[in-house]
Amino acid sequence: MSVGTMAFLIYWTYTPGVLEHLKMKRLPGLIIAVVVSFMRIGFSAAKIRYLSEKALGWMASCRVMLSWDFTSSITPSVVGGAPMGTYAMTKEGFSLGQSSAIILYSLFLDQLWFALAVPILLVSGIFYEVVPNNTGVVGHASMILLYIGLLSYAGLMAYGILKNPHAIKKVVNVVFKLPFLRRWKDDVKDETENLVEYAHELRAKPNSFLLKAFFLSTMSWLCRIALPTIVVLSLLPANEILSILRSLAMNLAFLIMPTPGGSGGVEGLFAIFQGPLMDRKAFIGLAVFAWRVISYYISVGLGIMATTWYINQSVVESFDDLSPEEQERDVPSSESI
């Protein structure tokens, strides 16, 4: 769907000879965009490593983050890659309770950032056309509902993590009473105890711990938000401040895209939010293509490698758990080959 949308935008906006208007002095900006994309991964990995109190090494933190990113890219945006992040951390030696608490705390930091972004956009909307007028009443109403939803969700997470971790435990235990999940109820009950215990440990950390973790989370999001603007400015001049604000707004809108990784929808939102800022409409398709490759496909490629590493680890561990007789039976003999 992502490729199809990009192909449509390029076909719809392309005009013969448009590439002649590219300024070579601007194109190095695309290299800066690639660097910023890797910086985003680095800050995200640093946040996970910091929340693990540096029990995770840098390579392990990057693997966790990349596999999380990859799963987010192949599942609907509302689902996200948190379950994969939790699984990856268990493969790095953490208990399920500890892994869940760290991933939950990481998500909470993201929600804090969203809660901060909403008032920024509301105030900026007084002076700038943050949500393009071409979205109409439906577009503006959708963004208001999104703002309300993000603030509400951030409040619930803050209550559950900072005030009452036992509430999270109750919710998880209720979920695992469902018929198709009941078989894991006892195992999950033990792990929720670990989750609550580790959540209490995180909550007991000094304010400086929260601030540093929030700084790393914020830097990761700022890199993500800067990418569309950097790509646009690499092709032609545009209103930098308005581009950044619209990038912030559309990144929040990406969160509710129902398609895997937001594919199809995010490209359309890019064209709607950033397109009006580009004097040459023929560059819109090119900008979408460059941005998507740098921000999405590179991450997907690295994420596949990280996820494959965890799958291989699982296969090796499963093989090691077999008895010698079972291992010998499962390994093909030279004659059968």
Question: Would you give an account of this structure?
Answer:
With 337 residues, the protein is mainly alpha-helical. 74% of the residues lie in helices and 0% in strands. The protein contains 13 helices and no strands. Helix 2 (28-51) runs parallel beside helix 12 (284-320), helix 5 (96-127) crosses helix 6 and helix 11 (265-274) packs antiparallel against helix 12 (284-320).
Question: In what range is the share of β-strand residues?
Answer: under 5%
Sum up the overall morphology in one term: globular
* Termini separation: 41 Å
Largest sheet report? none
Write the layout of secondary structure elements.
Blueprint: H1 2-13, H2 28-51, H3 58-74, H4 82-91, H5 96-127, H6 136-163, H7 165-175, H8 185-203, H9 207-235, H10 240-254, H11 265-274, H12 284-320, H13 324-330
Helix pairs in contact: 1-11, 1-12, 2-3, 2-9, 2-12, 3-4, 3-12, 4-5, 5-6, 5-8, 5-9, 5-10, 6-7, 7-8, 9-10, 9-12, 10-11, 11-12
Which short descriptors sum up this protein?
about 325 residues, globular, mainly alpha, single chain, 13 helices
Provide a short characterization of the protein structure.
The chain is mainly alpha-helical.
